[in-house]
Design brief:
The chain is mostly helical. It is built from five helices and no strands. About 80% of the residues lie in helices and about 0% in strands. Helix 2 packs antiparallel against helix 5 and helix 4 packs antiparallel against helix 5. The chain is flat, with a radius of gyration of 15 Å. The relative contact order is 0.16.
Length: about 130
Amino acid sequence: MTNPLQRQRYLRDTVATASPARLLVLLFDRLVLDLAQAESAQRDGRREIANERLCHAQDIVLELRMSLDVDAWDGAPGLAALYMFVLRELVQANVLLDPERTRTCRELVEPLRDAWREVAAQVGTPSMTGSVA
């Protein structure tokens, strides 16, 4: 099996066997990576790459929002509003090729990622130091 095929299989197996908390960490890791890459591409004027990364980030944020049960806890509606704000900002960052908006979104989601890493670690999942590329 070639390296790319091994990598795909590893990622597929990781997602298939991950706990819900670990899945959230994986999504947030990828979201932060997408935003960092998009910001860099925007600063370098590489619109196509920035667009690709921002669209993927938007997909992740939308998935996070759609999977959130707003009736599950008191803070859920606020989190839902934050997700929608980030989604709107990512659209604007893409349309306007605005790396500052992208940076702001990354800075908003990094603490959420870190919080989910802590939660996942507390419920006994493996180390959360890796990320999805």
